[in-house]
Design goal:
The chain is mainly alpha-helical. It has one domain. The chain contains 3 helices and no strands. The relative contact order is 0.19.
Length: 67
């Protein structure tokens, strides 16, 4: 099985948001942005037409409105 860095970061971001750890989620969102900008966007990484960065940003926005 091929497990990409972006998958691990997205999973960790989901976990941080689920546990309402906004500070950790923010750091992970920044890591997702770096991963996508420096490494992922070169090949236009998408699975099932889903952009991991867009999903993470939406999740982060939802978490921010809860506080």
């Amino acid at each position: 099985m091929h497990y990409r860095m972006i998958d691990a970061l997205a999973e960790a971001h989901l976990m941080a948001c689920t546990q309402k750890k906004g500070d950790i989620a923010q750091i992970l969102l920044q890591a997702i942005e770096v991963e996508m900008e420096k490494y992922g966007r070169q090949r236009r990484e998408r699975r099932a037409n889903v952009d991991m960065l867009e999903i993470a940003k939406a999740r982060q926005d939802k978490l921010a409105t809860m506080h």
